[in-house]
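Dear U.,

Please find below the material for section 3 of the report. The protein was modelled together with LNRAV4D5; I have listed the sequence and SMILES used, followed by the predicted complex structure.
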Amino acid sequence: MQTMIGVIGGSGVYEIAGLQDAQWQDVETPWGAPSDQILTGTLDGVKMAFLPRHGRGHVHSPTAVPYRANIDALKRLGVTDVVAVSACGSFREEYAPGDFVIIDQYIDRTFARDKSFFGTGCVAHVALAHPICARLAQHCLAAAREIGVTVHEGGTYLTMEGPQFSTLAESKLYRDVWGCDVIGMTGMPEAKLAREAELCYASIAMVTDYDSWHPDHDAVDVAQVIATAGRNAENARALIARLPALLGGARDLCEKGCDTALTGAIMTAPAKRDPDVLKKLDAVAGRVLKG
Ligand SMILES: CSC[C@H]1O[C@H](OP(=O)(O)O)[C@H](O)[C@@H]1O
Ligand SMILES: Nc1ncnc2[nH]cnc12
């Protein structure tokens, strides 16, 4: 099986450089258009696809990002491993602005997004106890260490709906009661959808601020986030450039089971499945639906 790395760039990361045969291309999906064209090419002999989550020029709000189309489009292009890059606020003193956090867990507080490819006509339930691919996360950690950025292994990412930042009471709840480490607005449902699409998924959260809880820091504002995200973007691009060499061009099925997440997950009896729904699932669930 050939590795193809898909990178989803967050706030501040709208392009990557250095791809051979680089080409921005339109990808159509049954879930609508992705956030933008997708930049494809090759780096160190490994195929890559880059998609800016909010679109070039940051046109989609966290709620309006077409998460299903984005994941479907990457799957359709042949991506095997998705590395998501996200700006985030920090709930921990030692996770300082400029630091990277390799996420391992999520709490999903979003409520206004389509969160599944499945539903009436084809119902499926995938496992999500470990939403991050631990194998891919280890490669991201190694890449971060190679470029010398301060990186923290593991962290729980609270996904809020936004677009407003949190109140002080919310910030304290997530930090002091729920024990979250970082906060952002996009990690979910992206990670859920990647699992449904049988894609390995890892997330690099780049700290831009201390959200609202920190007594020694002003409440977060967007100018501060943008300024720090811009500085983090250079490190993100350097990290991404290390990934092809670390992952390699050929790969076996993921030992963590990401590539086979849909095995046994579809509940709807074959005779009761809606052909129109199945058609939309051609890329995401083609492996199990082809029979
Ligand atoms: C620009 S401030 C808030 C915005 O930044 C983060 O986006 P992303 O995760 O795509 O880097 C955060 O989640 C919000 O969407
Ligand atoms: N404090 C914060 N809350 C939510 N999303 C963010 N993105 C960057 N900083 C954030």
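For the text of the report, you could mention the following: The domain at 4-289 is CATH 3.40.50.1580 (Rossmann fold).

Regards,
Y.
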